[in-house]
Amino acid sequence: MEEEDIKKKRHTPLKEKLKSNIVQLMTKLELWKEELQREIPTYWDNFGNFVIFNSRFFVDENWRKAGPQLWNCVSELFSGKSVALQSKIQNNEFRSPSAHVVLGDSPWVKYLDNGVNYTWNVELTMFCTGNVSERHRIGTLDCEGQVIVDMFAGIGYFSLPYLVHTRAKQVIACEWNPASVRALRMNLAENKVAEKCVVLEGDVRVVCPRGVADHINLGLIPSCEQYWSVAAEILKPTG
């Protein structure tokens, strides 16, 4: 079943239930103190088999003392999902996550969104919730017969909607993060579109051929301006 409303910031009944269950557990373990109130999550990301909390929550030493009992308590409220904590994205060339799994056998997330299957290693690659509108918009395009170049493909945020929904002839997906490339290849296979995608691993300025694209996707944040001239070279004269 597809999941909607990825962010649960305003899901008051669930927030209250989570708070109640945590307080009860910590009280039972004789670890509760009022200062912990502000460290109980008020929002989270809900992706397929994972629920991911910001690491600004669960900071106090008493949470660590509660150990697996705490994470099992949390997981039960989310139908037994794996649990991870994530802080700010690292300021490196790969925009790597600062995340770790606290409950679960595997760091691999499996998530279905708008008819597209995504998987990624939550400890090695990020999944941007903020691009959901653009992912869905791309899925409405008609790109029949076109060659698409995704200059910053990641795990396939945009490449996959082009391939699954738009009838594109081919997608050339460029990505230089090895962990993202691995997830991208897995996603292409899972969605049965690998035969229509060429994955080029490395710096897009070096690996991508020129004059091949009808349409280019520039999904680099916070700005892709420095790549505009490269994008112009990658376009066909008619692109």
Automatic annotation (TrEMBL):
Keywords: S-adenosyl-L-methionine, Transferase, tRNA processing. This is tRNA(Phe) (4-demethylwyosine(37)-C(7)) aminocarboxypropyltransferase. Residues 44-239 form the SAM-dependent methyltransferase TRM5/TYW2-type domain. GO terms for molecular function: tRNA 4-demethylwyosine alpha-amino-alpha-carboxypropyltransferase activity; tRNA methyltransferase activity. One of its GO terms (cellular component) is cytoplasm. Pathway: tRNA modification; wybutosine-tRNA(Phe) biosynthesis. It comes from Graphocephala atropunctata. InterPro entries: MeTrfase_TRM5/TYW2, SAM-dependent_MTases_sf, TRM5-TYW2-like_MTfase, TRM5/TYW2-like_N. SUPFAM superfamilies: S-adenosyl-L-methionine-dependent methyltransferases (SSF53335). It catalyses: 4-demethylwyosine(37) in tRNA(Phe) + S-adenosyl-L-methionine = 4-demethyl-7-[(3S)-3-amino-3-carboxypropyl]wyosine(37) in tRNA(Phe) + S-methyl-5'-thioadenosine + H(+). Its EC number is 2.5.1.114. Pfam families: TRM5-TYW2_MTfase, TYW2_N_2. GO terms for biological process: tRNA methylation; wybutosine biosynthetic process.
